[in-house]
Structure prediction request, 318 residues.
Amino acid sequence: MNIEQGTDVIKYIAQTYLNIHTILSLVLCLTIALILGRFIAYILRKVVAAIGARADKSQDLPTVNRYRRYETYLVLSIALIRVFLVVISLYFWWLLDHPNEPPTALIGASAVFLLILSASLAPILRDVVSGGAMMIEQWYGVGDHIKVVPFDIQGVVERVTLRSTRIRELNGEITWVNNQAIQGIRITPKGIRSIALELFVTDLAKGQNLITKANDRLPSGPLLLVSQLQITEETKVGESLWHITAIGETAPGREWLIETAAVDLIKEMDEKSKNPVISHGPLARFADVEAEKKFKRTITNARKKPQPKRRRTTRQTK
Prediction:
């Protein structure tokens, strides 16, 4: 291609696609698509709020998880619908301003345009690809309490798009994270921490009373001690020695209420009593039921030994 031919191509593109009428019609089509996208997003957000309210009222965990998945899918659909509307508006713009040219030409023009802008759009495209992969694999959803790896960011997922994730932390701060920057996710089951206290006492009744008094002095609430310490096991392990296990639940980030505050409080109350009863402890540990089942199964299987093979005996016929 010589210089004259190249000049003719540029003039043709300028006259056909960069004239005032074409630009105005393009702006009009995109404006309609954006307004319609905002309207649909407004309706879908109302639906998301209604689903969230139903999830909060339900006491059945599988039902709550199902509603959370619906929330995530609807939030993701907002971005997809907006992209779809923009594509449709470009298609109608092409038919309106270029009735004599096949719509396939729009695909070629779009491909060339994306190729030119690929350098600047590369970070956004990586976010979209990463977000799409995470959503397909269902890493997390709206309402889940997560911790982002490798960052020290944890909180409740408020919004998920193909490009980014919005997290509200316990102190109220809102953090936006690009999806391509997320290397891993830690999810807190049910959004709470289950922590157990192991306590060895010489008097069972007084040991139970220490747990009761500790509950009276620990702050309770949805963001504090979600569930008070409940004694789940009482075992006599000696002549005058009992093993008490009490399990409580806290909001993520408030584990110190049991690990530190409850432990120090029980020790202080016992030391101030006339007849101390604590022999060992209290010792704090995580007490997730599902994790204990998985680890118990793994340890049980690891302790198995190969069984001697049985010899096969053949019967001799006379």
User: Anything to note?
Assistant: The two ends are 99 Å apart (CA to CA). The beta strands are 145-149, 153-160, 164-168, 174-178, 184-187, 193-201, 225-238, 241-250, 278-286.
